[in-house]
Amino acid sequence: MKGSIDCLAILRRRRPHVVVGGGGYVSAVPVFWAAMFRRPTLIMELDSHMGLANRVLSRVADRVALSFPISGRSGGRYVLTGRPMGPALLDAAAADGCRRFGLSQDRPVVLVTGGSQGARSINLATADAFGRGPLSFQLVHVSGRRDCELVRKLLEEQGYDSGNYHLLDYTNDLPQAVAAADLVVSRSGASVLEIAALGKPALLVPYPHATADHQRKNAEWMAAAGAARIIDDRMLDAELLNKEVGALLGDRERLAAMAAASAALGDRNGAGRIAAEVLRIARKNGK
After folding, report:
1. What is the pTM of this model?
2. What is the layout of strands, in order, in the sheet containing 63-66?
């Protein structure tokens, strides 16, 4: 309650030209109050499924900036802007990524990541598939902190190729890892937009319990463009992962075609479009 009152006081005192909400409950109060006091508003939806707060706020916001096309959400107040990308991603380069992670630019690089929390099914399949004996490619495996020691123990028991299998619990430099990769194995949250922005082909394993199955929709969006292949989480195991990775790395022409499709799908100017919408709203209201 105090936060809501404080927010109202700030809005009345500052009288902002535009109020921008980034989604989630934190943005609900300021956007709602702004709309009630007829201050221009814009909300951003960063996923392919609108969360509860944005579904409610979309009824009162002047503009709704979408990162993905969403069925039933087009025209009028809805505008497809793409997702805003920061300079850490936009400036990421393969050479810098290779230096950061101790990789050679002369050999293929596969990045495996399960998102910020990690993904146990992906972690275990990766350790089992590639943790036995020498590797013909370089592997950067970002396991997440929860599973890192479990994966490390499995790798040590299996006699993994420590010169080519790089296990990390977490990295702040994930954009550089993506830039260095020839192939990305990942969940398919909003990170698919970042993968596409860097023009990388992907093997996507949608999280099966995501709200409204939106990770599968994200993966299908990339796959339909020819930029990704989808592996069902329930079917994922070492044999299948080894087969899929091997088939792509063994067909450089196909991998290059997927990379080109990913780059064509990628959008690096989401922030610019959102900024343009904010300015348009402000000017429309005489600011």
Report:
1. 0.91
2. 19-21, 41-45, 63-66, 78-80
Right CATH for 88-265 from 3.40.50.2000, 3.30.750.24, 3.40.50.2300, 3.40.640.10: 3.40.50.2000
Give CA–CA dist 72/74, Å, rounded. Answer: 6
Mean pLDDT by 10 residues, the chain (287 residues): 80 90 88 91 92 92 94 92 94 97 98 88 98 96 96 97 97 97 97 97 97 92 98 98 98 98 95 96 79
Distinct helix (H) and strand (E) counts, the chain: 13, 10
Q: What helix, strand, coil percent values describe the chain, rounded to 5? A: 45, 15, 40
What stretches of the chain show up as alpha helix (H) in DSSP? 2-14, 25-36, 52-57, 87-90, 94-101, 120-130, 148-158, 174-180, 191-197, 214-224, 238-249, 252-265, 270-284
Q: Report the amino acid identity of residue 260.
A: A
Rg (CA), the chain: 21
Tokens of 133: 């004996």
Q: Class assignment of domain 2-85+269-284?
A: alpha beta
What pLDDT is attached to residue 183?
Answer: 99
Q: Identify the sign of the CA torsion 143, 146, 149, 150.
A: negative
The two beta strands, 202-204 and 78-80, are: unpaired
Longest dimension (CA), the chain: 68
Tokens of 264: 């064509």
Q: What are phi and psi of 91, to 5 degrees?
A: -95, 0
d(C-alpha 210, C-alpha 92), whole Å: 29
Report the alpha-carbon distance of residue 4 to residue 15 in Å, rounded.
Answer: 16
